[in-house]
Amino acid sequence: MPKKVKLDTEFITLGQFLKLADVIQTGGMAKWFLSEHEVWVNGEQDQRRGRKLHIGDKVEIAGFGEFVISES
Questions:
Q1: Is the alpha carbon torsion for 8, 65, 31, 50 positive or negative?
Q2: By C-alpha distance, which of 61, 67, 66, 35 is closest to 48?
């Protein structure tokens, strides 16, 4: 069962998502994290910290699990 990450705006960037989901401690770690880990957004690999995530998007991170963006 994927973990839900609640969103109260239209979208969130992948870098902001990593911090909100408690995968990283600070936003500054996003670039490093994405270069070191495989991140899949809706079934396609993506390393762009500026990638916009919307409600319903699914994020999979090897070793961290699956997440779904949901409404707050």
A1: negative
A2: 35
3-state secondary structure of 46: coil
Residues 60 and 50: their CA atoms lie apart, in Å, by 16
Give me the number of domains the chain comprises. 1
- φ/ψ of 31, rounded to 5, equals -60, -45
Q: What is the mean pLDDT of the chain?
A: 95
Cβ(70)–Cβ(58) below 8 Å: no
> CA-to-CA distance for 54 and 62, rounded, in angstroms?
21
Instruction: Say what the pTM is.
Output: 0.91
